[in-house]
Specification:
alpha+beta, Aminopeptidase, 2 domains, seven-stranded mixed β-sheet, binds coenzyme A
Length: 252
């Protein structure tokens, strides 16, 4: 596998591990799980390495020994990965694209209605609230609070406020995570009532400025094609780097 893809993938795995209550390696499968985050294709996952043999035995072992209160895991497999998962009769969940933005070619925007702030500990609860509301997952708020109280200093968190008649409303969020000389943009969300008003574009603009100041040339992010945000990212200048095929692996 291309070493750059390996590094990007490892950055994604490190990010996921911070959200996991269980993270372990079983043969050539890396397992991440956190049942408190619900049925989440990004965090309850099995990453399968290239050229992995005996996947069937390993998956059966996981089924019997690592259920962790989940109904299913999501298998993440880099496209073109030469292994025999397709022979296992496991249903496809979707395609996740890993996109990159050349930040030297990016023209930053500005909106008089949107203010972006880097989140300090005082703003952390606002950020968590906006994140849970944007992703329609308020039931995970306690778990997200636990994760961020442990790992706050490993991320750069951004929050967006939207102004209406000089009153400001928390409206959007994202975070940056760095590893292997790569910087990833995660958790980009805008609350329902402030969508399509330029909030996410403004968050990305500020994320670009921060990444540039830190000396990076590009930003990476992941998007599931069936959620239909690819067009939104492509319009901002993101390009596809590689793809992953996701499968649902039922435990019962
Ligand atoms: C994806 C998301 C963050 C976009 O936020 P937003 O604040 O509405 O986006 P913006 O208003 O900044 O959009 C910027 C541009 O993209 C367009 N756009 C926004 N959502 C779009 C979509 N789903 N498809 C196509 N274009 C879209 C906007 O119209 C705008 O275009 P313009 O510059 O011509 O006006 C928001 O829909 C969201 O929070 N979704 C749920 C959480 C989520 O799944 N996040 C993505 C994880 S990959």
């Amino acid at each position: 596998m291309d070493s750059s893809i390996e590094e990007i993938d490892d950055t994604e795995s490190s990010f996921c591990s911070l959200w996991s209550t269980a993270h372990t390696k079983i043969d050539c499968v890396e397992l991440f799980s956190n049942p408190n985050l619900g049925d989440d294709y990004f965090f309850n996952r099995l990453n399968i390495q290239a050229n992995c043999s005996n996947i069937s035995d390993t998956l059966n072992f996981i089924k019997n020994n690592h259920p962790y209160g989940l109904n299913n895991y999501y298998i993440h497999l880099i496209h073109n990965n030469k292994n025999s998962i397709t022979k296992l009769n496991i249903s496809k969940f979707g395609t996740m694209k890993i996109l990159t933005l050349d930040i030297n070619k990016y023209t930053t925007h500005g909106s008089k209605h949107v203010e972006i702030k880097v989140v300090d500990k005082i703003l952390l609860n606002d950020w968590i609230d906006v994140f849970c509301r944007s992703f329609d997952s308020l039931e995970t708020k306690n778990e997200v609070t636990t994760i961020f109280s442990q790992h706050y200093d490993k991320f750069t968190l951004l929050i967006a406020y939207y102004y209406i008649d000089e009153i400001k409303f928390p409206a959007g969020c994202c975070l940056l995570f760095e590893k292997n000389g790569k910087i990833g943009l995660y958790c980009l969300g805008t609350t329902y009532q402030f969508r399509r008003k330029g909030v996410a574009r403004e968050l990305i603009s500020n994320a670009v400025k921060i990444a540039k100041n830190k000396g990076y040339d590009s930003i990476i992010l992941q998007t599931l094609t069936k959620e239909r945000f690819e067009e939104f990212y492509k319009r901002l200048g993101f390009k596809t780097l590689y793809k992953k095929i996701l499968y649902t692996f039922y435990l019962n």
